[in-house]
What does this fold into?
Amino acid sequence: MRQAWRWFGPEAGVPLDAVRQAGATDVVSALHEVPIGQAWTKAQVATRKSLIEDAPRGRSPLVWSVVESIPIPDAVKRLGAAAKAEIDAWIASLEAVAANDIRVICFNFMPVVDWTRTDLDYELPTGATAMRFDQDRFAAFDLHILQRKDAEANYSAEDRARARAVFEAMSDKDVADLTTNIASALPGSTTEPLTIPAFRERLESYAGIDATRLRRHLIEFLAAVAPAAEGCGVRLTLHPDDPPRSLFGLPRIASTADDYAAVFDAVPSPSVGMCYCTGSLGVRADNDLPAIARRFASRIHFAHLRATKREGDGRSFHESAHLEGDVDMVAVLRELLAEDRRRASDQTIIFRPDHGHRMLDDLTKKVSPGYPAIGRLRGLAELRGTIHALEAGA
It folds into this structure.
């Protein structure tokens, strides 16, 4: 397995030397500056690749091995194959990536919002902070700030009462911060920042789109792009929903093992695979992570390794340390290593530590939510140590 690090570019505050010092050999990156839906060019990809791979003399080499992500435009999620111009642009981006010898592309199919958290600096008993999804705060946003039409139907009377109490205790700053956290797109998001009116309008555009229809649109998209991926030798990896359940009354269709099975059965192309994200999948108690790794072992080409801790209501959760929380990371790594040993060297699984606590010096710095250097360094060190131990006992 190859150890990777997500890098948001030279403006992100984490230099490439930090990636080297963390012990990673591979970089996960994307052209976040290109507007969603606009085709990437070979020259744009080559410029970023040169920045990553043209190491100064004496520095450890790095390789850009995974693109995370080429955003899928909203029109594709709403219209499926009918969004031909948007799909053609996505294929052009894929071909630009492949022309630069990058062979793994990660993507997701979450409508309107990408990964979602209500709190970006939830204080832990150690004094470090983590990202958190608080169900009552989310409901307060949905019901009382966004004021989504018919939102009450998605919440019980008890849920609505708790949400009202939370909202009534909020200051104007609390409301503004919560709105920013949910609506303004977190780092690496493949959806657009939205104002409240634009948020409502975007949700209304999904009227009548249920899980069956959204899945059909995903399958139509994959059926269109898989031949190009096969021709270019690119492996596509579908990231799970985060959190893996409906938000804002919208369907989500990459949340369980059965969701993935439906996609793989419909589009059996070997180029269509999974981004195995333990943190996202681990939020659901009914997701057996080692079993999912065994079931889809040959489809896993990229892994996000992190852990989450479900809280008392079963719907709230926060990011835990990588070897803690509700993810049995040792069992997960045992499955991934077993699959990796079966593969040719050029097909090895690439993984990265995903998210990390804000800790030590990062508490006093401006950092990208979820992606502080020190917390991820700790995570990668813990994962690397576990891998060494498992390989020694193999």
